[in-house]
Amino acid sequence: MTTRPFPSDFLWGAAAAAYQIEGAVDADGRTASIWDTFTRVPGAILDGHTADVACEHYDRMPHDVALMKQLNLGSYRFSVAWPRVRPDGGPVNRAGLDFYSRLTDELLAAGITPWLTLYHWDLPQALEDRGGWTDRDTAHRFLEYAMSVHDVLGDRVDSWTTHNEPWCSAFMGYTSGGHAPGRREGVAGVVAAHHLLLGHGLFVEEFRRRGGTPENGKAVGITLNPTVVEPFDPAREDDVEAARRLDGFHNRVFLDPLLLGKYADDLSLDTEGMLFEGRRWEDFVQDGDLALISAPLDFLGVNYYHPEAPAALPRDVEPDDLLGSRIQHSPRPRESPYPGGGVVFPRTGRPTTDRDWEIDPDALTRLLVRLEQDYGAPPIYITENGAMADDVVVDGAVHDLGRQQFIEQHLHAVLDAMDRGVDVRGYFVWSLMDNFEWSYGFAHRFGIVHVDYDTQVRTPKDSALWFAEVAAANGLPLA
Length: 479
Ligand code: FCB
Fold this sequence. Notes:
alpha/beta, Glyco_hydro_1_beta-glucosidase, globular, Beta-glucosidase, two-stranded antiparallel sheet
């Protein structure tokens, strides 16, 4: 077979996150996270689903690792649940940590590189009760938790990621309220974002102090969900302005402090007069914070699904012509995740996945080139990319050609970026298996492996079998 090859050391993986697959929410001393609480809020999750059981990965882990091996995965991206390791944000719970120790050993024995994320959104509820990410102290609690994970896994895990998509933690959690903890408090998302970044910086500092360097085979980074933001109508000044503003609140609010050591001036102008508990930027961004946050990274994780094309309000547009209108959402009201709101997302005419997300692989190439050109980004790993589909099992198989094509097109887009000089070193498909998709519960399937939630039977979909071949061949098939 002729292939379009990847570099010989390219990392092929699949990703998942603790809360979305583990279940066992009361096992071995674990206590509630903000998501356990949020799933109990009426209307917060589609069909009232909870992740109490999810994929039972906590109990089925060895079987799931065997499946990864069967699929030729070189790496598995997982997250550690803070409320298992330090229930209620309190003392270390050895029994909870043991699960990740066993998982690590199982992966290493299978020849699969563990790719660990410290925070994929499951803050202990007790810490949210003390202010959550709008409280600066949470960054210090994060450091404490992260170091207790490092104490136990630092010898065996080489790749450490502080946060997954802090944009979602901050702006979906504290501005929109569509995610836990469900707060709809405007510019609170900006304050939360800064404290998430501070937690990241504190960990990087300590990680280095403990000898965590590439020379010692250890790497630290963060995963963002940066995207391409382009005006819906480039001829309209208000759309161009909306795109600038969104680029600020989606991309630059994280990329600038991490990679340039500053916050852009337009962010503070855009939030003028919007104070969270009376705090101005200079109140929550303290001396020394930006130096910590901008310490050099060994890699940048990029999660990419779709671009954004905002149109400024007021706008004459039919509700059916807005993206997202073709799927059912959880009924609890939410605000725009962008402080100040004022935008909608009309269809641009691109095809969409069953999630009603527009498909644009070329935007991924443009995004990667921008990260290189504007930021001189460190080596990049695509830590999430994939598609939701309404999959069904027929005669023991799932024919998800749409997902396979989505992944294939995006892998070509990655190679296109690499051809243009971007240093991309790996690709993790989202997700290893169907799982609890946040406010959409179990209705949205993203896995390359199908999960029957009644029987917990796992069925590799056609996309998984295809992905396994691509990983083995280390290249994309060419016709
Ligand atoms: C990302 C999340 C991941 C999953 C995918 C579909 O925003 O990091 O947990 O929900 O979207």
